[in-house]
């Protein structure tokens, strides 16, 4: 009898725990429909991954560069870092995204939020190109990005000058974004692979200060996997990010790719309390994303990997970070 009671008590405890476990609906704030060769697994697989993993909304964008298969390379590279051949700005990436979204049913289309990325951020003609795309596809584009500026080895591999988030070409784009109520997602590394200080911080901070009416989504808060290979963790990131969130109400943080570890979670997979407190303090300024690139078989895994951190937040804040904050940063004309 005591054994039976013990088993019953254990079952009740497990049942109670399961009842208390949270399930999140997600908005993926950072998804690339194509890879660096402008290839994709396709919309049916993306829709299935969304259905299987409670992903209600996605930011969908192309990749603004294409990797060259150089004449001297006997094997086609699988990634932009696969060899030393360069990459080049590729505006047709937006046409691919527009065509894919255009084939969706009206109900499906409400779950997709296309961002326009196929332009050269060094070219002061780019704002005119973006305006043409807005005119060609009225009502389609809901944001600009991911704009590649400082981006690890991709910066060196991309043909032309180094893109900066605070150059004249991007300044023109920020004005256009504000006029059209479009958020801008920027990839702008906060430092180089070896410098243990925020070497490039001014390149993102200057636009934040000079364009208060433009909403900026800072991809990965300036971190990257390549930086982590050389510097395991940036000690200055948390205080720098805290100051910037205090100073710039137009700054939002995309938590995808390189922020989950080693920042949000420690080596044991436990939430870091300093980051929990930061998100609690700014509950509407953070959003999760997968940053998948053209393949969607790991989409659910990437978003579910945030669950331990979300579970450490108050439930209302967790739901904002998981789903609502991305939707809130979109143009006011977008149906929520």
Q: Can you characterise this structure?
A:
The protein is of the alpha/beta class. It has one domain: Metal-dependent hydrolases (TIM Barrel, Alpha-Beta Barrel), CATH 3.20.20. The chain contains 15 helices and ten strands. The chain has helices at residues 2-20, 43-52, 93-102, 106-109, 126-136, 152-157, 168-179, 201-210, 225-230, 237-247, 260-264, 273-281, 299-304, 307-311, 315-329; strands spanning 26-32, 55-61, 65-67, 87-89, 112-116, 143-148, 184-187, 216-219, 251-254, 286-287. The strands form two sheets. The chain has an eight-stranded parallel beta sheet with strand order 1-2-5-6-7-8-9-10. A two-stranded antiparallel sheet has the order 3-4. Helix 8 links the parallel strand 7 and strand 8. The longest helix is centred in the first third of the chain and has 19 residues, at 2-20. It is globular, with a radius of gyration of 21 Å. Residues 8-19 have low confidence and may be disordered. Residues 1-21 form the signal peptide. It comes from Pseudomonas fluorescens (strain Q2-87).
What is the chain-wise order of helices and strands?
Answer: HEHEEEHHEHEHHEHEHHEHHEHHH
Assign the CATH topology.
TIM Barrel
Q: How many individual β-strands?
A: 10
How far apart the termini lie comes to 55 Å
Question: In the CATH hierarchy, what is the class?
Answer: Alpha Beta
Helix content: 40-55%
Arithmetic mean pLDDT? 93
**Could you give me the name of the CATH homologous superfamily?**
Metal-dependent hydrolases
Radius of gyration: 21 Å
Strand order of the largest sheet: 1-2-5-6-7-8-9-10
Unreliable runs:
8-19
Strand content: 5-15%
**Given the C-alpha coordinates, what overall shape results?**
globular
The biggest beta sheet reads: 8 strands, parallel
Class inferred from helices and paired strands: alpha/beta
Please work out how many helical segments DSSP would assign. 15
CATH architecture descriptor: Alpha-Beta Barrel
InterPro entries: Amidohydro-rel (IPR006680), Metal_Hydrolase (IPR032466)
Protein name: Amidohydrolase family protein
Organism: Pseudomonas fluorescens (strain Q2-87)
Keywords: Hydrolase, Signal
């Amino acid at each position: 009898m005591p054994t039976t009671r013990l088993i019953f008590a254990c079952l009740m405890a497990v049942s109670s725990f399961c009842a208390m476990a949270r399930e999140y609906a997600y908005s993926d704030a950072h998804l690339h429909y194509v890879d660096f060769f402008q290839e994709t697994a396709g919309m049916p697989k993306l829709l299935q991954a969304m259905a299987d993993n409670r992903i209600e909304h996605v930011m969908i964008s192309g990749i603004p560069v294409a990797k060259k298969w150089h004449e001297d390379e006997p094997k086609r590279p699988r990634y932009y870092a696969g060899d030393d051949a360069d990459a080049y700005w590729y505006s047709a990436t937006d046409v691919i995204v527009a065509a894919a979204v255009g084939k969706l049913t009206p109900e499906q289309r409400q779950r997709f939020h296309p961002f326009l990325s196929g332009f050269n951020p060094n070219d002061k003609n780019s704002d005119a190109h973006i305006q043409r795309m807005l005119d060609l596809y009225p009502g389609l584009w809901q944001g600009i990005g991911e704009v590649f500026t400082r981006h690890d080895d991709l910066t060196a591999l991309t043909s032309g000058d180094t893109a900066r988030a605070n150059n004249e070409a991007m300044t023109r784009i920020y004005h256009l974004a504000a006029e059209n109520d479009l958020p801008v997602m920027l990839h702008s590394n906060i430092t180089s692979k070896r410098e243990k200080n925020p070497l490039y911080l001014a390149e993102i901070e200057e636009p934040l200060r000079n364009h208060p009416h433009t909403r900026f989504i800072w991809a990965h808060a300036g971190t990257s996997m390549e930086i982590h290979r050389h510097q395991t963790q940036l000690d200055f990131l948390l205080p720098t990010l805290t100051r910037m969130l205090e100073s710039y109400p137009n700054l939002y943080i995309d938590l995808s790719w390189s922020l989950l570890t080693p920042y949000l979670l420690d080596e044991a997979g436990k939430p870091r309390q300093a980051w929990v407190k930061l998100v609690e303090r700014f509950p509407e300024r953070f959003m999760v994303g997968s940053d998948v690139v053209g393949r969607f078989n790991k989409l659910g895994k990437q978003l579910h990997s945030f669950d331990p951190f979300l579970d450490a937040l108050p439930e209302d804040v967790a739901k904002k970070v998981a789903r609502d904050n991305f939707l809130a940063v979109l143009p006011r004309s977008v149906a929520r």
